[in-house]
Automatic annotation (TrEMBL):
Keyword Nuclease: no
Annotated keywords: Cell outer membrane, Membrane, Receptor, Signal, TonB box, Transmembrane, Transmembrane beta strand, Transport
Signal peptide feature range: 1-24
GO cellular component terms listed in the entry, alphabetical order: cell outer membrane
Protein family per UniProt: Belongs to the TonB-dependent receptor family.
Full protein name: TonB-denpendent receptor
Record carries keyword Membrane: yes
Membrane topology note: Multi-pass membrane protein
Compartments where found: Cell outer membrane
Domain TonB-dependent receptor-like beta-barrel per the UniProt entry, residue ranges: 428-911
Motif (TonB C-terminal box): 927-944
Pfam family, one: TonB_dep_Rec_b-barrel
Organism: Sphingobium lactosutens DS20
């Protein structure tokens, strides 16, 4: 109630602000809402950048942190997210297989809770979420990043974490002609291949500086080889007493279990070689037809292609088949045996092409001495696999049946330093024959094509009145977001099982031998992961999944083809054609109308300068959700593989739902200058985060290809409401000398309408599970608006430059907590906790003098709950969690200016060879660990 009363007072404060006399100057936050001009950049290098950042922070009414380019074409890092993690309260989420910073969390709120804007415009993203994958955003020619931790209502109030505004340079920022070029080579130690980055920027003004054009383009490539050990999911369930012994009788198997436990659904290891190529291009044209009007047209384009080749093995487990089970005190299965286990050698090629283009038109008009009008229109479209690329082509070969292994897995320790290991392996337990090609046959082959698109049209109109110390802003925005998703695969037509069974060596009529010519060699697993204990089989098989598919397609002689699984695939004609998965089809339209007003003034309170900013934003949203619905009518077992099932469906029909909501979002910023160097801040606001677009589908989707004991279905919810947060900040900042300050900031967020991805186990349409003879029980995941939670924390920041020595540092730490932490003992279907919360700390120490720069960056983030759900989540206890283990990474960078225009630079990333690892409910339930290695870069930079 106190929270609501505090926010309600904001409207009264706005009225008070208009009535009070104006007296000094604008606080400055509104200026960077439209992207801070780089025209005032004079000092270059680390110290110049830090001073500009500090000046903006100091003058702002709200809580904002900024990172500026050190010079044209010289941003501090090659990745936007890598730079952002240097800021207080900001930490990053890495891509495990590449080690690249992929997303950010602000004060514990990650991904979709943070809105990313390009020059004040929403950027489309075909991922389906609200967040932007920062590996797709080139940092080479970024001018500035501004992170608003309290809302600027003229910009947005649609982010509970923060609003990030990326500003690109424009030709009028610095009239005249200027150019910048960069060329570099980088190598990851495991990949061992030097790959290039090359880019250039050209900007000029002409026609007496009334016109200007800026063009830049960058090509970047990163190659990464990563080793991985994984458990696809730790499934919770109830063991029978006999599972703890070597044998279960039929009578015992008929009895229900009562021993709580978790077991690994699938265990394996693989090596991944990833080639990441990105092209970024931008053109901006500006025209000033009169002293009062500036027109800007720009086009931002990016295309990223990521291709990953995978070689590994995977072994599937079912709880009812486990024997000699040993558990620790938490119920985690730490040792077991499973008779007759098949062994699969896996290979695949995953491809993702993400293409985004944003075109914009902006007109600024100084209508009078006091009034400025700002009109902006933009169109942005993002497409995933725009040319119909196949997303993944995967193959499994191996052995099972008569030579299946009585296979065991043992868990030896914590997931941050140890991975599970096989206690027995090889055909019929013969470890020496682990990769005996004479017995290896075909199993399954999976092809998938994910096609997404996201199209955003937006228009905003704003007016700003400035007179002495009073600034009034008002305006509105319309935005329409069209998101489309569909998946085609070989599950929908069951073609993935066409040659399942492993063939004659495994005692099966289906499946064919794999010729030695398809095997490209082996990969040694010696010294697999730095800093981790645990043993793997000595080698992995290496083969091309696409070549494997072509080989199988070349065998086709009709339904009587030897090894063909004739009972599996109606309509199969020898080729692994894709079929549309109707349940994957979504068409989401979101229309958003918003209006805002804010008042900013400066006055004196007891002789101390007082800055006051009050505003409010009204958001109205309408959602139309379309999909294709169908229900299962039967389940068919595989005659080739007893672990595989096929779901058969009713006819499909179109489904459409619509919903709407509106919210009033006030904001209040106050700053009191106790002295010239000591500033006290207080901020209160209400913000919201809209649900992910791909959460708004209207249908329940049951996959056609399923596994015994692991029937799943997913359901979205077109009626989801946004998260709402009431936010409070109290901060003290001490600017004790030039380019140096210390600050402490307390924050509290009361968040409601949390979207919970709960699961339950239920029957659907009365279909029978042929493996049990009973009604099939599916693990169904659904999303609903649920509980409330409070997040609170403290940010500490200290920046110091040691006079004119050239030495300095920037350090910060953030400590957060919540009243809804994860309760590992909660076995209910609807367990809830706040995700993303983690303590973090960052230190950047530098030297910058006489053309020499050197920087050491140390970044630490404690363990945190990433999400509810695992790669395979069939637990009887709801959505199992995924935690990310704590990590510390140290990066080095430096440059040497040889002339005023020419410099050399280099960087070494992850010099301590840190890994990325995750675990389930308990710390010894390893889910993933990636060793992504070190990366070294060297290059040249030229500017004038």
């Amino acid at each position: 109630m106190r929270t609501r009363i505090g926010l309600a007072m904001t409207a009264s404060c706005m009225a008070l602000a208009v009535a009070m006399p104006a007296s000094a100057q604008q606080a400055g936050q509104g200026d960077i809402a439209d992207g801070v001009s780089t025209a005032d950049i004079v000092v270059t290098g680390i110290r110049g950048s830090l001073q500009r950042n500090l000046d903006i922070k100091r003058e702002s009414s709200g809580v904002v942190d900024v990172i500026s380019a050190e010079d044209i074409g010289k941003f501090p890092d090659s990745n936007v997210a890598a730079s952002l993690q240097r800021l207080p309260g900001v930490s990053i989420q890495r891509s495990g297989s590449r080690g690249e910073p992929q997303g950010i969390s602000v004060r514990g709120f990650g991904g979709d809770f943070n809105e990313t804007l390009i020059d004040g415009r929403r950027l489309s993203t075909a991922s389906g979420g609200r967040s932007v994958d920062f590996t797709t955003v080139g940092a080479d020619f970024v001018g500035q990043l501004a992170v608003y931790k309290t809302p600027e209502v003229s910009l947005s109030s649609s982010s509970i974490g923060a609003t990030l505004n990326i500003s690109y340079p424009k030709p009028f920022d610095k009239p005249g002609t200027r150019m910048a070029f960069t060329a570099a080579g980088s190598v990851q130690d495991e990949a061992g291949k030097v790959v290039p980055t090359i880019g250039g920027l050209f900007s000029t003004t002409f026609a007496d500086d009334t016109m200007g054009i800026l063009i830049d383009a960058v090509y970047t490539r990163r190659d990464t080889q990563a080793n991985r050990v994984y458990v696809s999911g730790w499934q919770g369930g109830l063991y029978r007493d006999c599972a703890l012994t070597p044998v279960c009788t039929d009578e015992q198997l008929d009895q229900p279990g009562d021993i709580v436990g978790w077991y690994p659904q699938q265990y394996g290891a693989d090596q991944r070689y990833t080639k990441d190529e990105r092209i970024d291009g931008r053109i901006a044209f500006q025209w000033q037809p009169s002293d009062d009007v500036v027109l800007t047209i720009d086009d931002n384009y990016s295309r990223q292609k990521v291709v990953t080749d995978i070689s590994g093995f995977g072994i599937w487990f079912s709880q009812d088949s486990l024997r000699n089970v040993e558990q620790d005190s938490n119920g985690t299965t730490i040792n077991f045996l499973q008779a007759g286990s098949p062994t699969d050698f896996t290979a695949g090629t995953d491809t993702s092409v993400l293409e985004t283009n944003q075109v914009g038109l902006n007109v600024k008009w100084d209508a009078t001495e006091n009034l400025q009008i700002d009109a902006d229109a933009s169109y942005s479209k993002s497409r995933l696999n725009p040319d119909g690329q196949i997303s993944s082509e995967n193959g499994d070969i191996g052995y099972g049946g008569l030579i299946g292994t009585t296979l065991g897995v043992r868990v030896n320790g914590n997931s941050s330093s140890s991975f599970p290991e096989l206690t027995t392996y090889g055909p019929a337990g013969n470890e020496a024959a682990w990769t005996d090609q004479a017995i290896i046959g075909s199993h399954v082959t999976v092809r998938q094509q994910q096609l997404n698109s996201d199209e955003i049209k937006q228009f905003r109109l704003g007016a700003t009145w400035k007179q002495d110390d009073l600034t009034i802003k008002l305006g509105g925005r319309y935005m329409e977001d069209e998101f489309a998703l569909e998946n085609r695969n070989t599950f929908a037509n069951n073609f993935w099982q066409a040659y399942a069974g492993y063939g004659a060596p495994s005692g099966r009529d289906t499946g064919v031998p794999i010729p030695a010519s398809l095997i490209d060699g082996t990969i040694s697993t010696k010294n697999w992961l730095p800093g981790f204990s645990g043993n793997l089989p000595p080698v992995l098989l290496k083969y091309d999944a696409r070549a494997y598919q072509r080989y199988l397609e070349g065998l086709w002689q009709g339904p009587t083809t030897p090894g063909y699984n004739a009972g599996c695939c109606t309509g199969f004609n020898g080729t692994f054609d894709l079929a549309l998965d109707p349940g994957s089809v979504q068409r989401i339209t979101e229309k958003n109308w918003s209006a805002y007003v804010s008042v900013n003034f400066k006055a004196d309170v007891a002789g101390m300068p007082f800055h006051f900013n009050a505003g409010a934003r009204e958001e109205i949203v309408k959602v139309i959700s379309r999909g294709i619905g169908r229900v299962p009518i039967s389940i068919t077992p595989s005659t080739a593989d007893p672990t595989l099932l096929t779901v058969n469906f009713s006819d499909s029909q179109a489904v459409t739902e619509s919903s709407s909501y509106s919210y009033f979002l006030p904001a209040l910023d106050m700053k009191l200058e106790l002295t010239d160097s000591l500033h006290l801040r207080f901020d209160a606001s209400r913000t919201m985060t809209r649900p992910r677009l791909d959460y708004l589908g209207p249908v329940l989707n049951v996959g056609a290809g399923q596994r015994v004991g692991a029937l799943t279905a997913t359901g979205n919810n077109p009626f989801l409401k946004p998260y709402l947060a009431d936010n409070f900040d109290l901060g003290l900042e001490w600017y004790y000398q030039p380019n140096s300050y210390a600050a402490v900031n307390l924050f509290l967020k009361d968040v409601s309408n949390f979207i919970v991805a709960g699961t339950d186990r239920q029957t659907i349409n009365g279909v029978i599970d042929p493996s049990t003879g009973q009604e099939a029980v599916f693990t169904v995941s659904r999303r609903i608006n649920g509980p409330e939670a409070t997040v609170k924390g403290i940010e500490l920041a200290w920046q110091h430059v040691f006079g004119d020595s050239g030495f300095g540092f920037n350090a910060n730490a953030t400590f957060v907590e919540t009243n809804k932490p994860y309760d590992e003992s909660d076995l209910s279907q609807s367990g809830f906790a706040v995700t993303g919360l983690a303590n973090s700390a960052n230190l950047v120490a530098f030297y910058d003098k006489d053309g020499i720069e050197f920087r050491t960056a140390v970044n630490w983030r404690d363990k945190y709950l990433l999400q509810f759900g695992q790669a395979q989540n069939n637990s009887a206890f709801g959505a199992e969690p995924t935690f990310v283990n704590s990590a510390l990474q140290i990066d080095l960078s430096g440059s040497l200016r040889l002339t005023e225009q020419f410099s050399l630079f280099g960087e070494a990333l992850n010099i301590t060879n840190e890994t990325y690892s995750t675990h389930g409910r308990f710390s010894n339930q390893l889910l993933d660990v990636y060793g992504y290695g070190r990366r070294f870069t060297a290059g040249v930079r030229y500017r004038f």
